[in-house]
Amino acid sequence: MSLTAPSRAGRLPLGVAVGxxxxxxxxxxxxxxxxxxxxxxxxxxxxAAAISFxxxxxxxxxxxxxxxxxRHGAGLAIAEARTGTLPAWMLLAGFGGAxxxxxxxxxxxxxxxxxxxxxxxxxxxxxxLVVDRVGIGPGGRRYLTFRRVFGACIAFAVVAWSVxxxxxxxxxxxxxLLPFVAGVVxxxxxxxxxxxxxxxxxxxxxxxxxxxxxxxxxxxxxxVHAALAGGLPAATAYPVDGWLYLGGPIGVAFIFGLATAVRxxxxxxxxxxxxxxxxxxxxxxxxVAPGSGHSVDWTTPIAAVLVVxxxxxxxxxxxxxxx
Length: 323
What we know:
Layout: H1 14-42, H2 45-66, H3 68-83, H4 94-111, H5 113-134, H6 146-165, H7 173-200, H8 203-229, H9 247-288, H10 299-315
């Protein structure tokens, strides 16, 4: 059965697709908690990110090996990149995912999953304006409007307020800003992924390119860091808790889940549902299983609500005037 062109009868009901999208957002928040904890236990967020992405690559490679349509799609995307129809740099969009996972390993355990998610979504919203204006995504250019710029300003202000409210002399300011940077890069990655998936005719093929390029980048970064820091973590430093190595499989799960749900929900509803899942999931995680030395305060839920408002302002289509 092909995953690239499902029949209408095989599609999910709308209610189920909405649930899948919200669940994928919760999985993204869960991945941040897991990768952050792995980086904290190892004392090396660089190695934690490389491990997470490498496990995901193995899973995706097995899936592609079992799907002829995915292998064919990968060949189509490479062919279009060679002819210049598809910008070749888009095959390296996984660098954006690598930045996201690396940021999880370095920052989420220290700043908390909820603050991490608020800053990440804020960066994604602001960057999305530029990405749409340039026309990187498969939908072409989208011109700026007052409402979209206003929504992005709300998101940026919320991130600035959240970061300022959580400034701690023991936590460097650049570490608080890393999730925002990851969100900026993620918007570019998502747009490029859309172009690659369209060229390949397969979201699975696009996912493979993401994990290949992202894993390569993270392994190089981890090795360079190890050379500068005096070596990789000792064998005894790697935790034996199996759940700490689920970041990669979870990443594969929410990528495929979003690719399945978007066929029913559309991009707008998918984005709103996944963002809701990320914010709700991140707050629950910080309340139930907070990272080391972190707890949720009253500012975080307020920031989460304001970020949802900002996303709605940016995303919802304008009303058509009746004659």
